[in-house]
User: Fold this.
Amino acid sequence: MSELRLPAPRDIATLALLAEEIDILIVGRRMRAWIGLATILVLLLGWYLTTDVGGLIDRQRFPSPSDIVTAASQIVRQGYAGGTLLTQALYSLRLVVLGFLVAALSGVPLGIMMGLSRRFEAFVNPAFLLVRPIPPLAWIPLAIVWLGLADGAKVLVIWFAAFVPAVINSQAGIRSVDETLIAAGRVHGASRARIICDVLIPGAMPMIFTGLRLSLQASWTTLVAAELVGAVFGLGKVLSTAYRDIYPAMIAVGMITVAILGALTTKALETIERRVIRWRGH
Amino acid sequence: MARPLSHARPSRSEHALLSLGGATVFLGVWQGLAASGLVSKFVLPAPSEVVTAGLTMAVEPFAGDTLEGHMIASLGRWAMGFGLAAGIGVPLGLAMGYWRLLDAMVSPIFEAYRYIAPLAWVPFAALWFGTGIGGPVMVIFTGAFAPCLLNAYRGAQLVEPYLIEAARTLGASSLRVMAEVLLPGALPSVVAGLRLGAGLGWQSLIGAELIVVSSGIGYVLVQGQSNLAPEIVMAAMLAVGLTGLLLDVALQFAESRIKQRWGYPP
Assistant:
C-alpha cells in the first residue's frame, strides 16, 4: 500500500487518497463537530480577509463582515424601511403564526375527515386536486387583487401554502394506522367515536406533525415572497428596500433574521410535538 | 357497520358518482356566485371566463408573448436551474456519503443554508446575476439544491459498506466506487430527491418571476394582477399547476424506468 501513496501526480486521485487518510482519523462525533467548526471559522476568516482586509471582492455586491455589523446596528438602533429590526421581525412573525394557525386548524381536520371517510374523500378530492398542484406563490397576485397589500392578503397566501401539506399528511396519517389496532379496539367494544379519538388520531399524530413542519416551512417561504412582491412592513420589505438601495449588507441582515426566525419557530413546533406525542417516548 | 372504519371503501360506481358530485358542487357554487352578481367580476370571475381567458392567451399574445411562449421561457429557466442543482447536488451528496471528512466539513454549512427560505435569495440573485436569466436560475437552484444533495447523501449512507470494501479491494478508485457502487446503490433515493427538487424548483421559479423578471408565466400573473384581471391570473395559475403536474408525471415515469433498468422494484 505504501508505495502506492508515494509519488503520484497532483490530481484528483492524490487528493482523494489524502482525504481518505484523514478520513480514517475521523471516528467520534466530537471530532466531526470540531472539523465542522474549523471549516466555518476558516470560511469566515477567508471572507474577512478577502473583503475587509484585502478588498478583493466588490463590497457593492458582496458585503463584508464589518458591513453586516454596521447594517445590523443601524436597523436595530435607527430602523430601516420603516421600522427597527424588532418591529419588522415581530410583524412578519405575527403574520406567519396567524396564517400557519389558520391553515393548521382548517387543514388538519379536513385531512382527518378525508382519512376517516373514503366517501368524503371522493367528494372533496376533485376540488382539492385542482388546487393542489398550483404553487403556493402563484396565489400571491390573486391575493393582491382581492385584498391589496394589507395583512389579510398575506395571511390568505400563507393559508393556501400551508394548507396542502397539512391536509395530505393528516389524511395519510389516519390511513397509516395499523388495522390490527382498530380491530383490537373494536373487539374490546370501543365505540366509533372512541376509536377515532383514542386510536386513529393519536396514531396519526406523528404524520400530522410532519405535515405541520412542512406547512411551517412553506409559511415562511411564502411570507417572504409575498412581502417581496409588495408590503408596507416586514422582513420582506426590508429585503426589497435593501435591494432597491443596493445595500447588500442589509439584504444579508434580513436573510439571517428570516433564517433565525424560521429555525426558532421550527424548534417551538418540535417542542409542542414532543409534548403531544409524549407516549411515543422520545 | 361491522367493518373497521378505514375499510369502509365505497364501490367504484359510488366513488365515481361522489367525485362527479363534488366537482359539480364546486364548479356550480363558483359559477353561481359569479353569475349571481353577489361578488364582483373583478374579484371572482366565473370558471367559464377563466377558461376563455386561457384559450385567448394561447392564441393572442399577452404581456409580450402567447401563453405557450411564456411557458417555454419559464421551462427553459427551470431546466437550467434544476440541471445545475442536480449536477452539483447529487455528486456532492454522494461524495459526502463517501468521505466522512467532507461530510464533517460541509454538513454544518448545509444545515445553516437549509434554514434560509429559497425566496430570500431573490435580492442577492438579482444583484449578483441580474434579472434576465442568471438571477432566476440561481433562485431555482437554491430551491432545488437541498433535496438533490440530501437524498443522494442519505442514499449513499444506506449502501452496504461491504460492497464499497469489495470494490476497493478489487482496486477500484474512489471516483469509480462513487460512480459504479454508490450511485447505483443510492439510486432510488437519488431519483426521489430529484423529483422533490424539480417540484421545489418549479415553485421557486414562480416566486422569482413574480418579483424580478419580465417574461415567463410568473410575469403573466403579475401583469394580470396589475390589469385587475383575475380571470387572466386564474388561467395562468391553472397553466402553472398543470405544467407542474405534467413535469411530475414525466419524472415519475422516468423514475420507474430508471429503477426498472437498474433492477429495482418500481
User: Anything to note?
Assistant: The CA atoms of residues 239 and 251 of chain A lie 5 Å apart. The two ends of chain A are 46 Å apart (CA to CA). Chain A has two domains: 2-57, 74-280. Confidence is low (pLDDT under 50) at residues 1-9 of chain A.
